[in-house]
What we know:
heterodimer, A: alpha+beta, eleven-stranded mixed sheet, five-stranded antiparallel sheet, 27 strands, B: alpha/beta, Chitobiase, domain 2, five-stranded mixed sheet, 19 strands, flat, GPI transamidase component (chain B), Subunit of the glycosylphosphatidylinositol transamidase complex-like protein (chain A)
Amino acid sequence: MCSLLQQVAQGASKHNAMMFLTFLYLAACLVLTTLATDYFERLDLTPLPLGSLLASFEFRSNETLSAYNSQNFRYFPRSLGQVLQHADTKELHLRFSTGRWDTETWGARPWDGTKEGGTGVELWAWINAENEKEAMRKWITLNQGLSGLFCASLNFIDETRTTKPVLSFQPAGTHTQNGSLHLLHGVLPGEVVCTENLTPFLKLLPCKGKAGVASLLDGHKIFDASWQSMSVDVRPRCLTGQECLVEIAQTIDMVLNIARAKRPRGDPIPRPVQPHELICDETKSYHNHETCYPVDALETPEWSLNDVFGRPVAGACPLCDEEGPEAKSLCLHVPHSQGVWIGAGGFEVRSGPGEREKRCWQLVPGERFDFDMPKTSVRTHAQLDLTDELITAERTMTGHGAAKGGMRTVFTNPSSKDPVDIVVFESLPWFLRPFMHTLKAQITDTGFPSEWEVIKDVYYRPAVDRKRGTQIEMVLSIPPSSTVMVTYDFEKAILRYTEYPPDANRGFIVAPAVVRILNQVDATGNAKAIYIRTTSLLLSLPTPDFSMPYNVIILTSTVMALAFGSIFNILIRRFVAFDEVPENKLSKIVKTSRFRIALLKERIMGKAGKKE
Amino acid sequence: MVPDDHLQAQSRDLASNCTYPGHTFTPMATPPESPREASMKSRVIWSFWIVLILLGLPTWWTTTSIYRASLPTDSMLKSHKELWYSIPVCLFSPSVPLSELARLGNLVQMYGKGPQDLFKFDVHAEKDCTKFPSALAVSMEAGDGYSFAFSPESGSVKARYSSSDLEGLPSRIAESLQSAYLEEHASIAYLMAMNGRNSDAIQDFVKTLPGDLMMEVQKSANRAFKSSSEYHLTFSLFTAGPAPSSWDIQAALNKHIQPILHALSSTTNISVASQIQLYSSFSPSVQPQQTENGWQLRKEDLTSFVNTAEWPLSPSIGTGPTINFIAYIPAQNYIPIILEDSQSNSWLVPQWGGITILNPRLIEREESELGLSDLPSYLDLEQLQPAFENFQTQLLQLLGISQSSKLPLHERLKSFQRLSGLSLYIRTSSNLGSLARLAQHLSSIPIPRHVLHSVEHALDRLEDFKLCLGKTTVSSWPTCLGSVREAFVDSEKAFFDKSMVGQVYFPDEHKVAVYLPLLGPIGVPLLVGLIRELKTITTRKKGA
């Protein structure tokens, strides 16, 4: 195909057409080389405002479908492959995230938000099954398998936490059994992502963490980041004329605070800045040599890979391509004018004109590589050439009291001319019961004065108590330069005694809403998906006193015993006058002892009297 | 002393007089109880007790009892006691008439009996033995002298006899059979002895066996995996560095492993998977020693060779154990690694798998003038051959297929079929026995209905298998094994059912804590009332 396109390109007479075709040819060859190699990895480093650094790791490997089916695993991890085959899963997306992406400061999300999940763990998969019941059974098997593999509580994704989204997700792979594929989606918003999830993640990589850019991954640094997201995507890929492949793509994205990451490992305690090192805002009226309004890090300190990741790259992973654009496994997105000191062990390639300026390095197997980025003055994200998010979403809970509440989601479209169509997907736990008649969309602030229908479509699947949660998918259209508020009310259910978790008073975490932005195209004109996610919410439910059942048992028993005892005694006792009580041994003993005590008393008193 | 005497005298008076200072009264006679009052009282007491016994007790019983399906405990405990074992033999001859052959067969069967019918040869005389694929076909031919020889291809036996010595023929055939199948018998004796059937007959039989044979049987039993309905094989290529990163695994499997799996396909289900793991070095505690021929691994290093912390050797999904086979490629500066006292450079880890160290030929770098060389990035079939030949024998050993050279492979596989069927039977019945003992011992565990179903199903399948054992010649082994496999799976399901262990322990003191506030204040008046009532009844009877 490459040579054919080349011939066509040579045949074209006009210069423009030639340019275009050459571009096409390059693009086509790029696609082919992507498939030709079985393993690819890359680390993209992008400085962000306020001394932050975005590090995006991407790892991708392929296995032919026939080898995958006969369980001969080469680059595809056997443990994961067997779980997927056992559960008949054709496409898998698994996300582990912590922290919040700061849209205002950092701009648009990496990968357009397609490689990130909501806080905690998010999982969705296309499962091949004959009916829904079987799909659910396989889904549970899948969750249990993945739970063991990734050391996460994925086995807690049961039917109540599982939804079947209709509009929010599209398969990314090539599927032949379209009719029998079932999409299932589950979230664990309360899961704490930590080192024990990273270790199995690294074990899935062919070069482990021993070589290539993966050697920079260290749990101490990743989970110390301001925001991080790990993803695993498995999908089948078929191109005409080639054998089908099963592709596994793993990414880790994190935003590191450079100053924080540079703290030495042995002494991680932050020290207060000395007065003479403070950077003050001198524009303040009260600024003098005694009062100081400190400004956030005005300059990004100098850094190197060793500073921020704790070690340099341990050479290239030898499985990568040795030539071509795919071979450049480490890229730094800074302008060409910026000077960077590089060490031995890497060949630099700078991006050509027209692209966003970056420089990439091809690493050498077995040779360590590092570079030094000098101190740079602060830049806003416009200076850093960061793109803005198309839309911002913010979700909060309203209302007070333990019985009722409300949900409010605010969408802002900053664009001055383009409306944005979105799908908002919310999966709510069953004990949060929304009232759909109260669903309301309101344009609260707009620079676009005309009638606008915000809610275009709603897909709603009501909850069944203790069986499944609520699923709401709304197609919304946000007018240009406007803020839209979508609200609905809900009621909080009262749980059974045993349904409360051990830390019941903390509250229950409601999974983040997923926002998919529709009708977006990438640079080549193909449709692309953009996702953003809101933060998760904390829902406090009426919580009982957990010692209550025992108190109830004791109290009822006492009351019953009192009532019973007195009634029963009244019924069976004989009532006679005091002097008519028959004598028995017990009363005699009582009387004797009383008499003795009286005598003793008298004697003691008598003796005392004599003395007097 | 006077005041003391005074006191004693006074207290003696007290018993009769009942006076104490400041206050005196004389007791009056209690008025007799009216009959109406008395009968009312007893009726109240009795009705309370009737309500308690007829209503209270049943309610308490039904609300606090747990469901316990009645398990067929007797047959579960007994199931492993009735065991016998026979090896099917089919006699045929083109020349000898069938009735003569049948008589010979009966005699062979009689002579070939083991102690107390523990094992025997189930000898049949047929015109055509191909109808009975599970039996050993023995063709009788008249000749010069006696001979009894297995043909290595078909697995059948050609027996020659001289017509002059017809008298001793049955015992000689029986002897030949017994010596050929001695190892199988020894294995069975060992299996039974290990599983609580330590009867005198077995002890006596074991004493007659040569010591080294018994040692061998014991060793191979310890090496092999416990019989299971399913096995998973995982072939892993672990390399200490980045190369080699691919191997011709499919061809190697097809050549070396598939033939065995094909032969075993009617006995067990075996699934195969393979993986390549780079940068997976052996445990850091292992230190190869440098010698003039390269590097040497000492024997004591082998136990800690497997790097369990880093090697992804998680068992495959599904029931049944995973057998691991590891081809290890050392780092380039450690090539070649030689095992101490080993020809094959491989060793077997009992009940776990096999490991082979492969030292591939280094490839010289093309552009290098310094004679630098690299590990190959691809291992072809030829380089894998030694490893897979080891894996082949190790697989047979790990499955427990006899290594003896007396029998052809065909017969050894049949013997493996019989042995694995029997050992599955023993494991099933021991599962059932343990479950029965557990149910008897712990009266507080619930026994759900589906456990009962599994147990019943397992028992039925065991019966089927017993029928198979009874008619070894005619029964088809795949179906027999199928039923014992089902029985095994069901018995495991029943024994490990999680709903039974949910509330095994509900401590008695908790029960007391819950019941005492209720039973104390209510129980005491009720009991006292009952005792009084009973007393009045007895006094009334005495009076009457």
